[in-house]
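ingest -> validate -> predict -> emit
validate: passed (alphabet ok, no gaps, 107 aa)
predict: started
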Amino acid sequence: MLEKIDTPQIDERCPVEAVAEIIGQKWISLIIRDLANGPRRFGELQSSIHISPRVLSSRLQELEQRGLVHREAFAVIPPKTEYTLTETGMLLVPLIDEMRRIGQNFI
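emit:
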């Protein structure tokens, strides 16, 4: 009887699809755009993007789970939370910058 050999699983998804899956979601590219300029508080993001608190919270949690955003809560009154892009999240900034540049042609 032949012994079964375990072969490593290869993720056969297209790399473009992997990125599009992230930034193709509504509001994600705008969140990344704002965080590319440095740390932002929840209220700053909400005001800049004009997004509901529930949706913003959901998108930030997803970005944090993907390792693209870091959330830091400060033990002060009133509570203060800042969001920043991680090193991995910063990889998306050139893409967002290019989208901004190309978008100027459509405005």
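The radius of gyration is 18 Å.
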